[in-house]
Amino acid sequence: MLEAINGFxxxxxxxxxxxxxxxxxxxxxRFLQFRYFFHMFAVFKDSLxxxxxxxxxxxxxxxxxxxxxxxxxxxxxxxxVTLGGPGAVFWMWxxxxxxMASSFFECSLGQLYKRxxxxxxxxxxxxxxxxxxxxxxxxxxxxAVLLLVTFGFAFNGLQSHAVTHSxxxxxxxxxxxxxxxxxxxxxxxxxxxxxxxxxxxDLLVPVKTLAYIGVTLYVIVLQFEHVPDMLATIxxxxxxxxxxxxxxxxxxxVMGVKRGVFANEAGLGSAPNVxxxxxxxxxAAQGVVQAFSVFFxxxxxxxxxxxxxxxxxxxxxxxxxxxxxxxxxxxxAVVGDWGRVxxxxxxxxxxxxxxxxxxxxxxxxxxxxxxxxxxxxxxYRGVVLLLILWGSVQNLGTVFAFxxxxxxxxxxxxxxxxxxxxxxxxxxxxxxxxxxxxxxxIPVFDASQFRDLDLDPRAWPEGDQVAAEGGSETRMPQVF
Length: 480
Description:
Layout: H1 2-28, H2 32-35, H3 37-46, H4 57-68, H5 71-84, H6 87-112, E1 115-116, E2 122-123, H7 126-133, H8 137-171, H9 175-191, H10 193-222, H11 227-238, H12 249-264, H13 271-275, H14 283-311, H15 323-335, H16 338-370, H17 374-393, H18 397-420, H19 422-437, H20 463-468
Antiparallel strand pairs: 1-2
Helix pairs in contact: 1-6, 1-12, 1-18, 3-14, 4-10, 4-14, 4-16, 5-12, 5-14, 5-15, 6-11, 6-12, 6-14, 7-8, 8-9, 8-16, 8-17, 8-18, 9-16, 9-17, 10-14, 10-16, 14-15, 15-16, 16-17
């Protein structure tokens, strides 16, 4: 029954939602992912500025990449190629391209409608912009529950399963023992809250990402003369023009969209939870940063994995096996047996930071549902650690099907909310563009221009209040 429901939702509903509404957001925003493409790098550079003890835009980016760059970039791409052929990679690109607009919309709204709690910390995400933007508290609570179940519970079990079985394949480690070690290490980080999670992500995300890109680029350079032909195969296979993969067009679209969404998470409502807590001068600036995150995740990391697999010579049409083993064997076919070890270590780092990210998403939405009471958070931490142990030793086929269903429901609720709040985002874009055209290097948000919206004055003071307090640098409360 789960497979039938999942097939309908992820095979039909998800494609229409992600590609259809993502295309609509692209058109309504005047193709912002193209207009802002080079501007993304300037905003990314500005995000490196010190934030005076607050969570910076760069830290928010590292946290979102901690979640986006995970098992989906290794095992997910391998699975997409296995079941959908090379054409699935093209549809992953399409999903990411329109997803950049969706991510801009959701992360800008997450910033705009964020709230400052009694401890001076920012909280935000889909539940907040649904609650305060659409004035639908019941729908906001449903969104919080879906995020909690999908990321806090189901995805963490899946991530644990992937890494422990990878370590077993490469080193012969017991999955149970690996699960215990991972649970203990994660528990130590959980105790420190968002500050420690951000610090660990700042350290591990650049290391894991650069190391993985470096090794995969090495393989691509070794086979560089075959890259143009392989890119042509990807495009032809996407439309059934490659004879060897002509029968996989439907599977290529479905697997490309499903695994693309699983990898970059654009439109799911996950990234806004992290984007909302960053210190930025304008909500649209964080939207730009998070659109860059989607681009980097899919067009760089996922493409590196796909080319690694397709150029290795190991993959053939009709390959049977899981995506992780395919990626490990593909690298080993080019560089030797140490390739399997490298993929396992890389996956361990990817999964560790992804679980931290998933945990925070769950905690943030639990706080929305239960407030700042401590005992629900402690219970939640315990349940997450137990699920990590359970996921390390269990066959998670049913859990994967369940997670795909809840992921599609997340996309349904979130993307509909984005469509209904689209006019608000367009106002943010117009304000941001107007300031940039006037020569303002770093546009600043003035809440007095948006008095008709239900905004938190502690998060977004009006222009005259900001001036009285001494400028934009002092206008936001400290996060820590």
